[in-house]
UniProtKB/TrEMBL annotation:
Keyword Phosphoprotein: yes
Residue ranges, compositional bias (Basic and acidic residues): 228-240
Protein name, per record: DUF3662 and FHA domain-containing protein
Domain of life per record: Bacteria
Span of the signal peptide: none
Domain FHA: 146-195
This protein's UniProt keywords: Phosphoprotein
Species of provenance: Agromyces indicus
Region (Disordered): 225-248
Length: 248
């Protein structure tokens, strides 16, 4: 129970740190994460000894007033919720049938401060979305090179005197990421060690001056996936591609 308690505290710190200052009353973002976690744990279906399937599509219903406040945060809140759901599933060794999709919905039957989560298992393709988290802001990575630095010509601009104008670049080829120092004055650290060029693994921490940049890869639902709405039978098995299909 201790490990679970620590993980829940981690979820609360992560969401509160990014969003909670926006809210003085009504539904709090951390209450949404708790509701999503309960839904995942409740709906977990044991398929085999080492495979537990959990929902990957979530409709989070709340009062219109709460929905307006949550929606004001834009896509950053959804990205953060997807990331936290992904981490919770990994910590419990749960598996998804496809990419994670979370939708916030206004429900006039709910009072302010209340939240309800509906979920389902939907087989589908995963869109691996790489992002950089910098000082509470999230920057999606496009295919190619993303330059980080203090200068206005950088794709991601740092307000940090310890950063060079063009400090580092992150290369994303659609599947993998690499970090390359661009001859910076003060150097770059990756997970606490000096680096010139290296592969970026998910949740790697890039340190530039006083700035801390986290590279994440979110397992989101592919927007072009036509499988949305198709439920997955818990009796199905996982195929070689990592998704779930009919049991033989």
């Amino acid at each position: 129970m201790g490990l679970l308690d620590n993980f829940e505290k981690g979820l609360e710190r992560a969401v509160n740190g990014a969003f909670a200052k926006t809210f003085r009353s009504g539904l709090q973002p951390v209450e949404i994460t708790a509701a999503l976690k309960r839904e995942i744990d409740t709906k977990a279906a044991v398929v085999s000894r080492d495979r537990v399937l959990v929902p990957n599509r979530f409709a989070v219903r709340m009062s219109p007033a709460d929905h307006e406040r949550m929606s004001s945060l834009g896509p950053a809140l959804i990205d953060e919720l997807v990331d936290l759901v992904q981490k919770h599933a990994a910590s419990q060794r749960f598996q998804f049938a496809g990419g994670i999709r979370i939708e916030l919905q206004a429900d006039t039957s709910l009072s302010e401060g209340m939240v309800q989560v509906d979920s389902q298992n939907v087989k589908g393709r995963v869109a691996w979305t790489p992002v950089l988290d910098v000082d509470g802001r999230r920057y999606p990575l496009l295919k190619g090179r993303t330059v980080i630095g203090r200068g206005s010509e950088a794709d991601v601009t740092l307000d940090d005197a310890g950063a060079s104008r063009r400090h580092v670049e992150v290369q994303w080829d659609g599947q993998r990421a690499r970090l390359r120092d661009l001859g910076s004055t003060n150097g770059t650290q990756l997970n606490g060690a000096p680096v010139k060029e290296a592969v970026l693994e998910p949740d790697s921490v890039i340190s530039i001056g006083r700035s801390r940049i986290v590279f994440r890869v979110l397992a989101q639902a592919d927007p072009s996936d036509t499988a949305v709405g198709r439920r997955v039978d818990p009796g199905q098995r996982r195929d070689a591609g990592g998704f779930w299909g009919p049991a033989e």
